[in-house]
Design brief:
Elements: E1 6-12, H1 19-27, E2 34-41, H2 47-57, E3 61-66, H3 71-81, E4 86-89, E5 95-96, H4 100-111, E6 115-122, E7 125-127, E8 134-137, H5 141-153, E9 163-166, H6 183-192, E10 197-208, H7 221-239, H8 244-262, H9 269-276, H10 278-286, H11 298-305, H12 309-331
Parallel strand pairs: 1-2, 1-4, 2-3, 6-10
Antiparallel strand pairs: 4-9, 5-10, 6-7, 6-9, 8-10
Helix pairs in contact: 7-8, 8-10, 8-11, 11-12
Length: 332
Amino acid sequence: MIENIVSVIIPLYNAEKYIKRCILSIVNQTYKHLEIIIINDGSTDKSLDIINCLKNKYDYIKVYTQKNKGVSSARNEGIKKSTGEYIFFADADDFLEPSCIQIMLEEAISLKADIIRSNYYLKNKNVYNFKEKKIYDITNKENRKKIENLYLNTYFFNNVWGQLIKREIIKNIKFDIKLKMGEDFKFNLEILNNAKKIVVITDCLYNYTYNTNGMNYNDSLEKIEKKIKDICSIYEWLYHRFNKKNVCKIFLRGLSPQLLKVNEYKNNDIIKFVEQQNIFINTTKMIKISDLNMNKFYIVYVLVLKRKWYMLRMTYFFTFKPIKKIKDIIKK
């Protein structure tokens, strides 16, 4: 019998509508050698009352409360408090399929893997990012480059939730508490550096319930500016560690939609900030128009690459904003 302890870490902030469902989905796992670490990040709703009731019933639920410091701080504290040989991150509004931990752990042990990833459900629909089971032995340099490429270029390798991680590869790595976006991405790339084998399986084992409606043009200027600064910070870090041209391409891909949103406001200080960043300067030198992906943001990529801010503004007001209004009307 497998008896390795798995620590399930849940950062919690004002999730009273979902947290009981999340916890019970872990309590009801077919694999029972678990500890549930909940870091209450200063919740102001009834979340803490709900988990304290569950804690009284299940002694392997451990609850810690801190002042509101953000999800990265909560996850770091969860790692610190956990004792398991394997770590599994879950978000408070998500939930697990009953056999999630057992299937992942059996794969991890039988294949001696450091990271196990699976497909998941979104709004009760299967999301099949992984079409077939794959084993990536990244002790080989060529294989490591392939998996690094996947991590850099595909969204489904960015999230930290829903993957089983061998504790020893985390070592002293922490989530970057200065980042409000991309902290998962950076953490995953850092632990990847310590991994030897990664396995992806086709089972749908996690239920992701975050509701996303694509680009949110209603973000405040403050939020957009923070996102842009985080993107510059992350990709500056990546630029010195991975293939430079590849990093520049995905930096442009991540930055452009945010710069498009800025056109809702008259403040251009963030544009000046971007123009001064080394990663932006290097990108405009290294990337050519022929390198760009042909998708709905193609024109935006070109305008950002060429620093045509006035034309970007016109593109926003006459193309993207009207499309957003039409979509909003259709939804109603």
